[in-house]
Amino acid sequence: MFRYWSIIGVLRTMMLAVLVQSLMIMSPQAMAGGLVEVLPQIKPSVVAIGTYQRTRSPAFRFLGTGFAVGNGRLIATNAHVLPESLATDGMESLVIVLPGDEQTRGVREVRRVAVDRNRDLAVLRMEQGEPLPALSLARGSKPQEGQAIAFTGFPIGNALGMTPVTHRGIIAAITPIGIPQGNARDLNPALIRRLSGEVFRVYQLDATAYPGNSGSPVFDPETGEVVGVINMVFVKGTKENILSDPSGISYAIPVEHLSNLLNGL
């Protein structure tokens, strides 16, 4: 009888240990543990992108987010973040704002070296200054639906300033980038091409992004490897609603397309 109850006691102890371990794994603190460790590796590589013109007020005009790749002098972002043209006669230039606080933050001029408008990707090059720590791009196995992700960028950078902000979520679906519109007036040539055959799959995220997050690196919160690039947010109603009533649906370009663009340089 003593031996029987001893076995039962051991089994209960083992089951309790497994339960406690499971609760620790599922707790928010445990879930955030990897991200807390990874963020110091991510933030020094994330930059704000904009244009600079000394005679303008403000001199810096924020456009979106980018991040260092390759040799640390290359900056990945979205093609739609970049201006169509620069007022070169007014000495306007394309620049990045380097990571750091107000005392250490610097500005570097960059130039575009590769653009893939069909996949909304672009690569810039920083010609001067020290290279930034480049983020590692995921290779091999592709992310799966339900996988946890995080992204760091400058949401509403014009209002909130040049402090990088991190959001987290999951890959909710892997879906074609062409989103059918409810009204024919919402169609445009690029969308028509996508719906008619030029379709590639993107990550639909259950995560809230805002204007300014375009070009943000989407990464694995455990390893820090970049799996995608934020490129658009689903807007409910008008664009103004995105601030007061965000949809929580964002999209990201798979990193394999960025790797292909970099390989072509």
From TrEMBL:
GO terms for molecular function: peptidase activity. One of its GO terms (biological process) is proteolysis. Transmembrane segments: none annotated. Keywords: Hydrolase, Protease. This is Serine protease. It comes from Parazoarcus communis SWub3 = DSM 12120. The keyword RNA-binding does not apply. InterPro entries: Peptidase_S1_PA, Peptidase_S1_PA_chymotrypsin.
